[in-house]
Amino acid sequence: MPLPDGFLWGASTSAHQTEGGNTNSDWWVMEHGSTGTGHIKEPSGDACDSYHRWREDMDLLAGLGFTDYRFSIEWARIEPAPGEFSRAALDHYRRMVDGARERGLRPMLTLHHFSTPAWFSWGAAESAELFARYVAAAAPVYADGVEHVCTINEPNMIATMAGLIQLLTTGAAMPEAGLPEPDPAVSQTLIDAHRRAVEAVKAHAPHVRTGWTVANQVYQPLPGAEHVAAAYSHPREDLFLQAAADDDWLGVQSYTRTRIGPDGPLPVPPDAERTLTGWEYYPAALGHALRHTAAVVPGVPLIVTENGIATADDTRRVAYTGAALAGMAEAMADGVDVRGYFHWSALDNYEWGTYAPTFGLIHVDRETFARTPKPSAAWLGAIGRTRALPYQP
User: For residue 233, how many other CB atoms are within 10 A of its CB?
Assistant: First the structure.
């Protein structure tokens, strides 16, 4: 199946997970303190040292055949203290944009990928305004040479983390399966922040296509549990999809599924293959996620901004990705408007508390930072050169 003209074909990373030394961020503070959750097993440290080695990362992706690269800029570097903006940090990210274009990679910029300055909180009354101020200050990075900007990565997961913290703080019972309910106030704040950010981007760069990305959980109800799945999905996913109804595009991020029974989420079947994150190996999730998103917000162009698998067996990565791409192609053949695909992740990087889950197309030596592309990188990059998905309707 030939890729449509202009189709984005790339890989994704995030600043905190790859750059290293993000000392002014909230995540750095959590990594070096006690959270009481047991989630953070090791600090990010130098990560992949991509703050200094970004040229090598881009050279590899361009050489492999990718035409696009999604990466984030780090708010904590740009505004380390309230109202204090770093010209050096802005210049650094501007060089990254220029470097991507020089290598034939179209940059997709993410303005917020989970980490924030240590002084900031999404629970603060003025948080949407502060985020919009940062987005306006970052205009020199995206105002020229950038066609797609993502305001916030997975806001539903940010709100869910706020809900989790609320449960831990109050001592309430944790769900046995599935996700805690997102904090309603934080959910609304994130929606407000997204809209303010879109306004800020358009004011400085009207040509930029703006959107955000949502973590799609692919809720699959057992017979008779359809109403349970709908009620469970709305605050955790559909609310954030509906908030993108007027956007230029919407990012779909899919890895696995969540089965729903009459009492809510069910655990992963005991005989199912699991990835290094403990998720069910379920590549069909991507096709389901695209179809569900298109049904919730008809008419909004979709971009797969993350899809991948945590595995030490690269043959399983190729198998998973090939099956996921087949599901995407089938959805496109049925009329779902998909404009691009970005694999997660370009590099084996820091996965929010541990380096153990390896999602990368490119192996990174933890001691030397040497990059070694895996066979999956060559296989997936070749699709960018041939512009044809390995799929026949």
Answer: 21
| DSSP track, 112-180 | -SS--BTT--TTSTTHHHHHHHHHHHTHHHHSSS--EEEEEE-HHHHHHHHHHHHHHHHTPPPPSSSPP
Q: What is the pLDDT of residues 72-121, one digit of tens each?
A: 999 999 999 999 999 999 999 999 999 999 999 999 999 999 999 999 99
Q: Which of 213, 305, 294 minimizes the C-alpha distance to 8? A: 305
**Which tokens go with 174?**
């944790």
Amino acid type, 192: D
CA 141 from chain centre, in angstroms, equals: 20
Q: Which residues of 296-311 are buried (b: 16+ CB within 10 A; e: fewer)?
A: bbeebbbbbbbbbbbb
CATH architecture of structural domain 8-384 = Alpha-Beta Barrel (3.20)
- Is residue 36 predicted with pLDDT exceeding 50? no
Q: How far apart are CA 259 and CA 330, in angstroms?
A: 22
pTM confidence score: 0.97
CA separation for the pair 240, 236 (Å, rounded): 8
Closest-CA residue to 114 (of 48, 189, 17, 20) = 17
Q: pLDDT at position 393, please?
A: 65
